[in-house]
Amino acid sequence: NAGVTQTPKFQVLKTGQSMTLQCAQDMNHEYMSWYRQDPGMGLRLIHYSVGAGITDQGEVPNGYNVSRSTTEDFPLRLLSAAPSQTSVYFCASRDTAKNIQYFGAGTRLSVL
Amino acid sequence: GQSLEQPSEVTAVEGAIVQINCTYQTSGFYGLSWYQQHDGGAPTFLSYNGLDGLEETGRFSSFLSRSDSYGYLLLQELQMKDSASYFCAVRANQAGTALIFGKGTTLSVSS
Questions:
Q1: A99–B50 CB contact, under 8 Å
Q2: Cβ contacts of B33 on chain A, cutoff 8 Å
Q3: A105–chain B Cβ distance below 8 A for any pair
Q4: pLDDT one-digit tens code per residue, A31-75
Q5: Nearest-angstrom CA–CA distance, A50 and A56
Q6: How confident is the model over B3-41, as pLDDT tens digits?
Q7: Do A43 and B101 touch (CB under 8 A)?
Q8: Rounded Cα–Cα distance for residues A15 and B43 (Å)
Q9: How far apart are CA B94 and CA A87, in angstroms?
Q10: Using the beta-carbon criterion (under 8 Å), do B99 and A45 form an inter-chain contact?
């Protein structure tokens, strides 16, 4: 059971480039989320999804897009990367019955 | 909206007991969770309180008082491996579709 899998683990982008951070879970969870973590700022919610075809904005959605075509996958897209998007990104899926959220290992992104 | 306040740093020695407090302001309350994160790692679930009172899991306990909008995580018999960041979190809405996290408390355990 792999849990929540994020790729890539590390990425360096130039300002203005676009990329997609991949996230997949094999626990059949309906609820999935994306967070960014910056020093001293904790985990801030970017976007979340309650099931295939349904997404919503979190606390810091600007500059990011998401889609949810399947229960398993929840990719995060940076349309035009900016240095302010340098961060560690975590994907999570939630077991609502147990009130437990499972996190992927994270993607460390640097935008130059 | 939601906001959570917790101390930024706590220090303790091995074998001691430490309490990490969390106060919250939410438009509706649907449970308080605690997560642990070691340096360079992913957050992992520790406990959940949906109702008032104490939940115990081994050396860790978590307490909730909904009337005071307050909870805490209690760590007993501290070990070096407990050095980590600890986050409290609340559900963002009634459906529990996402969690909102506090900024975290860094616990340093020394020998």
A1: yes
A2: 99, 101
A3: yes
A4: 999 999 998 889 999 999 999 999 999 999 999 999 999 999 999
A5: 8
A6: 899 999 999 999 999 999 999 998 778 899 999 999 999
A7: yes
A8: 29
A9: 29
A10: yes
